[in-house]
Write a structure and sequence with these properties.
Helix 1 runs parallel beside helix 14. A hairpin with a 2-residue loop joins strand 3 and strand 4. Among the domains are: 180 residues, Rossmann fold, CATH 3.40.50; 80 residues, no CATH class. The longest helix has 18 residues. It contains 14 helices and 16 strands. Strands 7-6-12-13-14-11-15 form a 7-stranded mixed beta sheet. A 5-stranded parallel beta sheet has the order 9-2-1-10-16. A two-stranded antiparallel sheet has the order 3-4. Helices cover 33% and strands 19% of the residues. The protein is an alpha/beta fold and 386 residues long. It is globular, with a radius of gyration of 23 Å. The protein binds flavin-adenine dinucleotide. The site of flavin-adenine dinucleotide has 34 residues, from helix 1, helix 8, helix 13 and helix 14. Flavin-adenine dinucleotide binds next to helix 1, helix 8, helix 13 and helix 14.
Amino acid sequence: MKEMEKYDYLIVGSGLYGATFAYFAKRKGKNCLVIDKRPHVGGNVYCEQIEGINVHKYGAHIFHTSDKKVWDFVNTIVSFNRYTNSPIARYKDRLYNLPFNMNTFYQLWGVTTPEQAIERINMQRREALAEMGITDVASFSPANLEEQALSLVGRDVYEVLIKGYTEKQWGRPCRELPPFIIMRLPLRMTFDNNYFNDSYQGIPIGGYNKLIDGLLDGVECKTSCDFFTVYRDNWRDVAQKLVYTGPVDQYFDFRLGRLDWRTVYFKHYVKNIPNYQGNAVVNYTDVEVPYTRVIEHKHFEMFGPDVDKCPKTVVSEEYPAEYSEGMEPFYPVNNIRNNKLAEAYQQMSRQEDDVLFGGRLGCYKYYDMAPVIGQVMQLWAGDSEP
Ligand SMILES: Cc1cc2nc3c(=O)[nH]c(=O)nc-3n(C[C@H](O)[C@H](O)[C@H](O)COP(=O)(O)OP(=O)(O)OC[C@H]3O[C@@H](n4cnc5c(N)ncnc54)[C@H](O)[C@@H]3O)c2cc1C
């Protein structure tokens, strides 16, 4: 080994992929250097403490999974609280429970039994199809997202809870969006406001930084360190292998073209009251309000009387936006062009010797947190060594 070649792995990105990789590598006796271009570790789950509240700086993160191995693993690093995601939708001055369930249908129509709710939805679907001039329902193929949603849930649910929110999210009218964005719209015929169907969910007690710090305990990390300015040309002098969790197109100098992203930017406010909206997540579903959601961070970690014990609160408005350079690449845009381009980059990644591409940027895929951790656990399962 050359003198400088001291690390087994140079890990680009200290998000959950990079941090989990470093954790398992260290347990196998490997020496890692983790770098991140941001001034902190943690990637998108990083939280900043403001007024004693953990503020999710890159968007609200709720951990949920049915994978017991992943759940048991993260709980060895930090315990999780009992937070259950039950978002509220606000349309003009009325509030509705999400996901669409018996509470929502009661709020919309005053129906009190599943039978009444199903009857109302079926009637609205029939009306919507008739308005579109569809007589042969079996061979109906929706031309856009609006037609798709109307055929699935009818006009009331679509107009109150889907239309404005989706148009703000994608920056285009639903009639100009492809139907595949909404393949299914699950309707729950029970009074159950729990957004996720998973067996386990919660927030790390003390915040996500505890999870990241636990994963990176004893691992050398350099922040404010951009791979492309510091290690791009000499990483082989520094490490045997590279784990790259940055954007895949950037790694290849955008040779085949740039992949598109959607992003979200935030306006954070400190309010001089203990409780602003009574819930962590409120979705604004009318098109007149420019933001899609307001997050009140304390409700992720403070429950019951603890809410009032903390005299201030921090809220974040979320504004979806088209991605441009300098913004955060958050959501892949999975249209035909991007999917083809991503596949071509993936083929190129497979040819790169000693480089492992991972995470949501490295694979150009939207992954929740638990699958990212699960993928890394799989890499290190048994005697294998990636
Ligand atoms: C707005 C939003 C909300 C989300 N909410 C949820 C949720 O509620 N529940 C859930 O399970 N999942 C959620 N997710 C998904 C979750 O954020 C991801 O699963 C997770 O962050 C993936 O980790 P990662 O390491 O792949 O990526 P990241 O966390 O993005 O980490 C990648 C890191 O690489 C660094 N990097 C990039 N380029 C370079 C470079 N050139 N040099 C050095 N460093 C570099 C970046 O700075 C970043 O820190 C959400 C995602 C977004 C965008």
